[in-house]
Amino acid sequence: MGHGGIEAVVAALQERLDTLTPAEETRREFLATYQRTTTAVAGAVDRGVFEDPEWVEAWDVVFADLYLKAFDAERSGGAGVSRPWRLAFDAPADLPPLRQVLLGINAHVNYDLPQALLAVIPVEQFDDPALLESRRRDHERIDGVLADRVAAEDAELATKSARTLLDRALRPLNQRASKRFLQESRRKVWHNTVELHHARLISPEAYAVRLAELELLSAAKIADLLAPGQVLLRLAVAGFGVVLPPPA
Question: Which pTM value belongs to this model?
């Protein structure tokens, strides 16, 4: 890859994969999926997909660090772990691999991603419309990377659990649904990032209030992810992302 930051992330994810205990096995599917996706982002950086590859790499590292900190905090007793991650880490052992991955995506995309974007878009960059638009475009370019991974990840999950005849028949629809809800959630992430930015301009307390709202919304989303039925098709219709309402 030739990118020290992302290489370090891939190595950190591998270290945690290698040291999973039997009690932590429900975390394997998201960990492995995230590692493969991170490698794909590094490849996109190398191919010149992004307008500002150095910014994308910095963002990727900050983003991953939020997950790694939550993972390590849960291992150390759970102090300070956000509710979306706690619910993901506490997934039932018999939960299908797809649902395990979706719980991790919910916590990491809906809750962590706006925070990661805010960390690498300082206040002054929000005052530069051209630069901010470039950041937004690079944020959306991740969709292409993820869309390219959907079929491969679907095939990977198919090796982990038996699929019914209905599951196999719905596979093309499920793959299209995955691409759709990933794109939809990314648009909502940008909205939430802007909302958090407005709050940080007011005060640290205002920011904390809005972040707590985002934490609650992301945790509530888990009910949709665990409900019976064809979860991917349901998410394609109802949406995967969460939206911060106007501030009170």
Answer: 0.88
Alpha carbons 109 and 199: distance in angstroms, whole number: 20
Cα–Cα distance measured from residue 153 to residue 175, given in angstroms and rounded to the nearest whole number: 10
Q: Is 18 exposed, middle or buried (0-12, 13-18, 19+ CB in 10 A)?
A: exposed
Q: What angle, 0 to 180 degrees and rounded to 10, lies between the N-to-C axes of helices 28-46 and 129-158?
A: 130
Helix or strand run (H / E) with residue 248: none
**Strand ranges (DSSP E) for the chain?**
none
Q: How much is the mean pLDDT over the chain?
A: 88
| Other CB atoms within 10 A of residue 99 CB | 17
What's the CA gap between 188 and 109, in Å, rounded? Answer: 10
Q: Tokens standing for 216?
A: 């609650």
Residue-wise DSSP of 147-177: HHHHHHHHHHHHTTS---HHHHHHHHHHHHH
CB 177 within 8 A of CB 235: yes
Number of neighbours of residue 232 by Cβ within 10 angstroms: 21
Q: How far apart are CA 113 and CA 121, in angstroms?
A: 12
The identity of residue 141, as a single letter, is R
Q: pLDDT of 189-202, one tens digit each? A: 999 999 999 999 99
Neighbours of 203 (CB within 10 A): 10
